[in-house]
């Protein structure tokens, strides 16, 4: 899986089986983007300036603890 251009990986969220489910990236100019991992694809969920708000808005922690 390749990260989008001009973004660097910051946090990977894995479920209890160790499968990568979400990735939080940061654009080199500052903003954060949250992706859902589906196979080898990244599906963009949202972007913002506060990574914690992105986690909460898309219920990331609830999803990985199912």
Task: Give me the strand/helix succession.
Answer: EEEEHH
Fraction of residues in H or I helices: 10-25%
What is the total tally of β strands? 4
Please report the number of helical segments. Answer: 2
On the 0-100 scale, what is the average pLDDT? 92
> Major sheet, described briefly?
4 strands, antiparallel
Number of domains: 1
Shape: globular
| Largest sheet, spatial ordering of strands | 1-2-3-4
- Terminus-to-terminus distance: 24 Å
Protein described:
The chain is an alpha+beta fold and about 70 residues long. It has one domain. Helices cover about 20% and strands about 45% of the residues. It is built from 2 helices and 4 strands, in the order ββββαα. It has helices spanning about 50-55, 60-65, and strands at about 5-15, 20-25, 30-40, 40-50. It has a 4-stranded antiparallel beta sheet. It is globular and about 35 Å long. The chain starts with 6 loop residues before the first strand and ends with a helix. The mean pLDDT is about 90.
